UniProtKB/TrEMBL annotation:
Belongs to the activator 1 small subunits family. The keyword Mitochondrion does not apply. Keywords: ATP-binding, DNA replication, Nucleotide-binding. This is AAA+ ATPase domain-containing protein. One of its GO terms (cellular component) is nucleus. GO terms for biological process: DNA repair; DNA-templated DNA replication. InterPro entries: AAA+_ATPase, ATPase_AAA_core, DNA_Rep/Repair_Clamp_Loader, P-loop_NTPase, RFC_lid.
C-alpha cells in the first residue's frame, strides 16, 4: 500500500457469506452498520421499539444504502429466518415490472394471512419493492390501489432513485426519506476495508480514483473492485493506471471549453454527440464546471447563471433525460451567457 488509512476511522460490521458477490458479502447486516444516513436509521430504530411502521419511500442516488437499510430493518424486525421468509417479500421492479407482477405476485403476498405462531412481533408483513421508478404507469396505478386495500396487513418499503417518476398518490401515502450521497472519504475507507479482508493490494490514490469513477455509487465501486482484483495482482504500473482512469476523458472537457465560443452551432451539435458517447453520468457536468473555473471562463458576473445551468442539467440526468441533449443545451446556453 502506498498509504494506509487509520483502522479506527470506521467500524464496519459486515455480513460474511462465502460465495456471494462482494456487494452482498459486505452488505451491512444491521441498522447500526448503515453509515451517513442518520435520520433514516433513527426513524427505523424507533419503529423497532414501537413495532409500528408507516409505508416508506426511500429515494436518492444509487449505491447509498437504500436497499441495505430496508433489508437490515426487516432482519432486525423478524430475526427468525423462517419468520423473515414468511413476512418479507423483496422484488426488483426493473426485473418484474408491469401490471402482471403487481396483480399476481404482490397482490397474492399482501393478501395472504399472517402466521400467528411468531410471538412478540408485529402483525403486518413487509414488501420491499426496489427500483419502483421503473414500473409502468399502469403498474403504479395498480400499486396505489393495492397499498390502499392492504394497509391493514402489509407495509410497503418503496425504493427508487428518482422520486419525480412516481405518481403523486403513491408518494403521498408514504413517509419519504432521502438518502444522501456518501462522502468520498467514507467510500474509500469502506473499499480499503474490503481490500484488507480480501488480501487485495490497492493504493489509497487508486481507491480514490475508483470512487471518482463510480460517481458516488458505492455498490458500483465494490463491484468494479471485485472484477479488477484478480487482474490487479499481475498488472504493472501502467496497466493499473489504465484500470483506474476516470469515467470521462479530460481532453474532451478541454475541447468543449475551447470550442464553446469559436465553433458554429453545427459543430457544437457534432461535439455533443461525440462527447455523449465517451462520457456518462451527472459527475461529468461537475467536472466540466470545475474545468471552466480553472480556465477562467467563469467570472463573478456569470458564475450564478452557469451554476444554474449545471444544476438544471444534473437534475435532468437524475430524472432520466438524455446526456447528449442536456450537453447540447448546456453548451448552447453557455455560449450565450459568456
Amino acid at each position: 500500500m502506498v498509504e494506509c488509512f487509520r483502522a479506527d476511522l470506521m467500524e464496519v460490521d459486515f455480513v460474511e457469506r462465502n460465495g456471494d458477490t462482494w456487494t452482498e458479502k459486505y452488505r451491512p447486516k444491521d441498522l447500526a452498520s448503515i453509515s451517513h444516513q442518520e435520520e433514516v436509521v433513527a426513524m427505523l430504530q424507533n419503529a423497532l421499539k414501537g413495532k409500528d411502521l408507516p409505508h416508506l419511500l426511500f429515494y436518492g442516488p444509487p449505491g447509498t444504502g437504500k436497499t441495505s437499510a430496508a433489508l437490515a430493518f426487516c432482519h432486525e424486525l423478524f430475526p427468525s429466518k423462517a419468520v423473515f421468509k414468511d413476512r418479507v417479500l423483496e422484488m426488483n421492479a426493473s426485473d418484474d415490472r408491469g401490471i402482471a407482477a403487481v396483480r399476481e405476485k404482490i397482490t397474492f403476498f399482501s393478501r395472504r394471512a399472517v402466521s400467528t405462531a411468531a410471538k412478540n412481533m408485529p402483525s403486518f408483513k413487509i414488501i420491499i419493492l426496489d427500483e419502483v421508478d421503473a414500473m409502468t404507469k399502469v403498474a403504479q396505478s395498480a400499486m396505489r390501489r393495492i397499498i390502499e386495500d392492504c394497509s391493514g396487513t402489509t407495509r410497503f418499503i418503496l425504493i427508487c432513485n428518482y422520486v419525480s417518476r412516481l405518481f403523486a398518490p403513491i408518494v403521498s401515502r408514504c413517509a419519504k426519506f432521502r438518502f444522501k450521497p456518501l462522502p468520498k472519504e467514507a467510500q474509500a475507507e469502506r473499499l480499503h476495508t474490503i481490500c484488507e479482508n480480501e488480501n487485495t493490494k490497492v493504493s489509497v490514490d487508486e481507491l480514490h480514483a475508483l470512487v471518482e469513477r463510480s460517481e458516488g455509487d458505492l455498490r458500483r465501486a465494490v463491484g468494479s473492485l471485485q472484477a479488477m482484483a484478480p487482474i490487479l495482482q499481475h498488472a504493472n504500473a501502467d496497466e493499473r493506471a489504465e484500470y483506474f482512469l476516470p469515467s470521462y476523458n479530460p481532453q474532451l472537457v478541454e475541447t468543449i471549453v475551447r470550442s464553446i465560443k469559436k465553433s458554429k452551432t453545427s459543430e457544437i451539435i457534432d461535439l455533443s454527440k461525440r462527447v455523449s458517447k465517451e462520457c456518462s453520468g451527472v459527475n461529468f457536468f461537475k467536472v466540466l464546471f470545475d474545468q471552466l473555473l480553472d480556465e477562467d471562463v467563469i467570472n463573478n458576473k456569470n458564475i450564478g447563471q452557469i451554476g444554474k445551468l449545471v444544476s438544471l442539467c444534473e437534475k435532468r440526468i437524475l430524472d432520466g433525460c438524455d446526456l447528449q441533449r442536456n450537453l447540447l443545451d448546456f453548451m448552447l446556453n453557455l455560449r450565450t451567457t459568456l
